Amino acid sequence: MDKSEHRNPVVIQKEGLSMRGQALFRPAAASVSNSKKMISESKFAFLLLLPTIVILLGLLLYPFLYSIYLCFVDLNLTKPWVGPKFVGLDNFSAVLKDGEFWLSMETTLYFAVFSVAASMILGLAAALLFNIKFRMRGLGRSLLLIPWAMPGVVNAMIWQTMLHPNYGLLNGVLLKLGVIDSPVGWLSDPKLALASIIMAQVWTSFPFVALMYLAALQSISGELVEAAKIDGAGSIRIFKDIIVKLLVPVTLVLLVLRTIDSFRIFDLVFAMTKGGPANSTQLSGLYLYKQGFMFSDFGLGSAGSYILTGFILVFVLLYMRILRQKDGV
Amino acid sequence: MNKSIKKVLLFCGVALVMIFTVSPLVWACIISLSPGKELASLARHWLPDSFTLMNYKQVLSLSDNAASFKNSLLNSLIVASVTTLFSLIFGSLGAYAFARLRFRLKDRLAVIFLITQMVPSIAIALPMYLIFNRIGLLDTKSALVLANLSFTLPFIIWMMRAFFESIPKELEESAFVDGLGRFGALLRIILPISAPGLFAIGVFAYLNTWNEFNTALVLTGSSQSKTMPVVINEFLGRFSVDYGLMAASGIIGLLPPVLLTLFFQRYLVDGMTAGAVKG
User: Fold this and answer.
1) Residue A223: its H or E element
2) Residues 201..260 of A with a Cβ closer than 8 Å to B: which?
3) Which of A247, A262, A324, B247 is deepest in the core (most CB within 10 A)?
4) B110 touches chain A (CB under 8 A)
5) Lowest mean pLDDT among A107-116, A192-201, B190-199
6) Contact A153 B117 (CB under 8 A)
């Protein structure tokens, strides 16, 4: 958006026609006299946004402020007669001192790093493959969308059927191939449970990455590649200098989206393992849910969720910085 | 020679991706169609000796009060449809304002909308629970519609904005020349030609709401408002012995989103990529 235009407060009134800024630069519209009096842009914008603003004020801003207030009080719903008690920063220090919180953050970090990396790599690979023309490509792309459209809970259920020690397809295949000689309890072994959840997460998230990359690849004009070929660039040069460069912006957008998502993940773990075995899959979302709704400690849950939001923001700002730098070059 | 090697490599790559994508779905389907007795040996044989629809019948006829699956499907259907309808109406109006009009605080509002997508839903779910509890809306479908509206609206505005920006400005200008006011131009010219974008984004809203779990888990308590994901999650604990029932409920639960995506595939991919790739 053009900033200088944006701030222009000039309102021209001409023969009952009132229009802002835009009319200055577009004489075509302004020159024709219009019998209807047109409402100003800002008034119209306000009208259009009114329902949204009301809903967001009531249902996001108010809860948002309320949850900030909750960070500083001790509110136990199981003892309503006590009422909220102001405790200052106690909730924050309680969360920060809680070893279980830090364990959940560590687990979340592992989860985020591996699931984001794997879905990006697999997604890019799938996009490069599906960018080549072959028969049934359309069908393949449609099938890719299915895991993406799935509710997290159903995803959890499907992977439970895949990973079950006795009924699961994964063990069935591995046993038949002779890779393992006795069934593996993917979700009951603390060492494997997190990896299993990452696999389920990658399954449902890589299609989105693939489709975004595909769209970006298709926006690369064939002429550019042809021109490079005529200039004598080999296919490796073309890939490095043209394709990779043009994919950088999408990559950063995807990194931001995927990172936010993987830090906020809840339904998949909640349905699949409930954090077990032995807290090995207790991601921060689950930890916060437990504090808030199972132990009825709303203050601790709120304080913790803002600490988590802080971590997410740090990552997003970091990516944004890299994005700006790349833009500057 | 070189060409055929490339072809084989391409085939292998695509096959691997497809196996990874499809096999969990096929497996869940097979389990849901297998008689209970065969489950134990299924992993070794991959296909049951006979198929049965028993699991589906049983899961749909479950009528216990805490979690009737049929009820939860109906709840999900109502909540997702109503949310989609309202978020499309309000969201497209708001998005138009962001795409075309100049007003104070515009950039700031846009950033605020984006930030709302970053807060973990649990941070909002805690106070929402307290608020809905106080005004007596806890455990109602209306509460879910309202909560979901607040999640989907910023998202829709963000996506629809990119779409409106891709429509040439001249269209409105000639509408103004023809004597249409701002509302008239929006309703009669812009919205009709935005139908594909509205469809795509409506499907997004529908999927988001149909799949939404966190808030539904917190805000619902009985079968009058529990949605499908909440009930399926309960099945995961209760029926962990009966994989057939579990798989059948999962397959039913994923049908609406899957059919919607397949049906609106083209629009969806365009809508999904419009904001991110062009930006």
Assistant:
1) helix A222-230
2) 203, 207-208, 211-212, 214-216, 219, 249-250, 253-254, 257, 260
3) B247
4) no
5) B190-199
6) no
CB contact at 8 A, A218 and A131: yes
Put simply, the answer to whether B128 touches A44 (Cβ < 8 Å) is: no
A157 interfacial to chain B (CB closer than 8 Å): yes
CB contact under 8 A, B228 and A142: no
- What integer is the mean pLDDT of A112-132? 94
> Does residue A279 come out as left (phi exceeding 0), alpha (psi in the -120 to 50 range) or beta?
left
B28 shares contact with chain A (CB less than 8 Å)? yes
Among B8, B12, B18, B21, which would you mutate to test the A interface (most chain A Cβ atoms within 10 Å of its Cβ)? B21
8 A C-beta contact, residue A33 and residue A39: no
**Binned average pLDDT, 10 residues per bin, chain B of 279 residues:** 84 93 94 84 79 89 75 95 95 90 84 74 81 91 93 86 84 85 86 86 91 92 90 81 86 92 81 57
CA–CA distance, B22 with A158 (Å, rounded to integer):
11
- Rounded CA-CA distance B264/A122 in Å is 24
Would you state the pLDDT for residue B159?
82
Structure tokens at B127: 């106070």
Cβ contacts (< 8 Å) between A153 and chain B: which residues?
213, 229-230, 232-233, 236, 253
Residue at B181: amino acid letter? G
Judged by a CB distance cut-off of 8 A, whether residue B233 touches chain A is yes
B 164-183 residues inside an 8 A Cβ radius of A: 173, 176-177, 179-183
Mean predicted confidence (pLDDT) in A217-232: 78
Neighbours of B239 (CB within 10 A): 18
Q: Which amino acid is at A95?
A: V
Q: Give the DSSP per-residue string, A172-185.
A: HHHHHHTS-SS---
Q: Which helix (H) or strand (E) holds B79?
A: helix B69-100
- Which residue of A151, A264, A312 is in closest CB contact with B253? A151
Nearest to B21 among A48, A132, A143 (CB): A143
Cα–Cα distance measured from residue A93 to residue A75, given in angstroms and rounded to the nearest whole number: 16
Angle at the Cα of A197 (from B154 to A122), degrees rounded to 5?
75
Q: Is the predicted pLDDT of residue A9 greater than 60, yes or no? A: no
What is the Cα–Cα distance from A68 to A61, expressed in whole angstroms? 11
Cβ contact (<8 Å) for B232 and A149? no
Which residues does chain B have within 8 Å of residue A5's beta carbon, measured at their own beta carbons? 102
How far apart are alpha carbons B184 and B175 in whole angstroms? 8
Name the residue with higher pLDDT: A93 or B266. A93
The rounded distance, in Å, linking the Cα atoms of A181 and A179 is 7
Cα angle: B165, vertex B167, B168; to 5 degrees: 105
The total number of residues shown for chain A amounts to 329
**What is the reported pTM?**
0.84
A19 forms beta bridges with A12
Q: What is the dihedral of CA B22, B24, B30, B36, to 10 degrees?
A: 180
C-beta separation of A23 from A33 below 8 A: no
Q: Which residues make Cβ contacts (< 8 Å) with residue B212, sequence separation at least 6?
A: B148, B151, B227, B229
